Amino acid sequence: MNKDNILETARQAGLARPDAGMKVPAGYFEQFALDMSTRLPERPELTDTTEAAPRSLWERVRTYVYMAAMFAGIWLMMQMVNIMGGHASLAPMDSNPVLAEALQSDDFMYDYVYSDMSTYDVLDEMDDAGILDDTFPIADLGEDIIGESTYTLPQ
Amino acid sequence: MSNRPEEDQNLTARLRDGATAREAFNEVMARYSEPLYWQIRRMVQSHDDANDLLQNTFMKAWMSIENFRGDAKLSTWLYKIAINEALSFLDSERRRRHMSLDDQEAEIVSTIAASPDFDGNELARKLQIAIATLPEKQRLVFNMKYFDDMKYEDISNILGTSVGALKASYHLATKKIEQYFDEHD
After folding, report:
1. What ipTM does the predicted assembly reach?
2. A32 and B65 in contact by Cβ < 8 A?
3. What is the topology classification, in CATH, of domain B1-98?
4. CATH topology of domain B124-185
């Protein structure tokens, strides 16, 4: 035996094979593959080609609803901070009792709201309301009242 | 290691198709059960243990077949699973029986010396015992190179070790085996 190169000696002796020096029961590998093929569990998910179920309406809009709720929550929180900090915005006009009373008063409207109307505007409003007709003495008003513009009654 | 890359490519394609996966896997088992068995057997020595580990190897491969993308060689993927199984088994046996690496090595040597499944001559038996005295990693590298004649690049892919480190490991293994024969003349 050449001890200086024992592995080469073993190779030449045919021992450099995977099965060298070992044995297995007769027909082991053929039987192993057959037995194993019957023992493998089914994998239906590998062959399942059905498409995923369509998503419901709620599933599709859910993200947007959550986002809208989140923004609404943030807005609400900011309003609360404003109110608690004394910077609350004014209530709407139609629910403000002081403003509602003022708007129902003719004196307030004539004195403060309509004060800058010209005679021409008043005549125009009257004409729209059907108050003016051919008998109205528009010519008697004079230029100092109706200005230089000439108002012509609609035909 | 498979020397039939075209057949492996065909098998890989069929494994990735759900309709043909099972049939293709049966072919995989028929083709690879023997080389994987010997790889495992040379690590654990006992036929019964090697048989159990080979079954575990194919069961794990089948249950995770969808994870095999075909990027690596089919044989590389299978060898990785088999070697992990063998190393995990040796590790768990050591823990279960509170054995050191030296104790386990001594037991493997005695298994070879007395095993009825060993039918080689004195040189073959002595070579097996010398290999059993190697550290696990060196033993793996030596088995793959000497008995399976694998390329270093393939071994590198399986073990995740650089080619340079594998060459050094194989060289050390051969020196230790020669030393064993010198000391046990």
Report:
1. 0.80
2. no
3. Rna Polymerase Sigma Factor; Chain: A (1.10.1740)
4. Arc Repressor Mutant, subunit A (1.10.10)
